[in-house]
Amino acid sequence: METDESHMTIAKLSALTPAEQAVLDQALTGLPAREIADRMSLSEATVRSHLSSIYVKLGVSGRVALLAHFRGSEVAVPPMEAARPRRPLGVSVTGWSWGAVAILEGAYGLYLFTRALAYGGTQSDWLLAIGFGILSALTVRLARSVLEQPSRRVLLVSVAVAGGCLLFAIRGLFLGQLPPFMILGAAAFAIGWIALRALGSYPR
After folding, report:
1. CA nearest to 187, candidates 104, 106, 90
2. Check: CATH 1.10.10.10 for 4-71?
């Protein structure tokens, strides 16, 4: 049966931010601030700052009082989701770069499509318009995968797609559309290189 003290503790817990709740979950296992920082990919100073805020919000004087409060009460600390590790910078750059490339591909595909409609494009114009449209859709999906579910496999796919885009751009240079294909080729090369470097963040 829950007491008034239990209700008060639950109310105080609801005042914690998600980050503070995650730190509290680790602190109640008895881990020191340094180990909590390592587990959550945070700096030790950040963990200590969260702990100080937790002590104030829960009305305890420190770690010993915090542990004594929960171990001696009937309140069960709500289970917290494991803190999501920080996404490496190279992975973020890869994802957002693919997003920018997708926008450029879609815009150029739309330009080719409208020009073909207005002036009666050749078969090559229609194929390029459709090709850039499909490429844009696939690139958007890849960008979302990199940003939302980063992994070694996704980065390897990014390197492979970058290689494919580079070959496509080189082939397009012979079709007379130099600026867009040069931009696509340069972007594909840069993203492929960044993704290849980011692979080091995900050991085999």
Report:
1. 104
2. yes
